[in-house]
Amino acid sequence: MRAEHEAFLALAILNPGAYPRIPTRRSDKGGFGPMITRTDGRARADRWWRLAMERTDGR
Question: I need a surface site. Which of 2, 23, 25, 48 has the fewest CB within 10 A?
Answer without folding.
Answer: 2
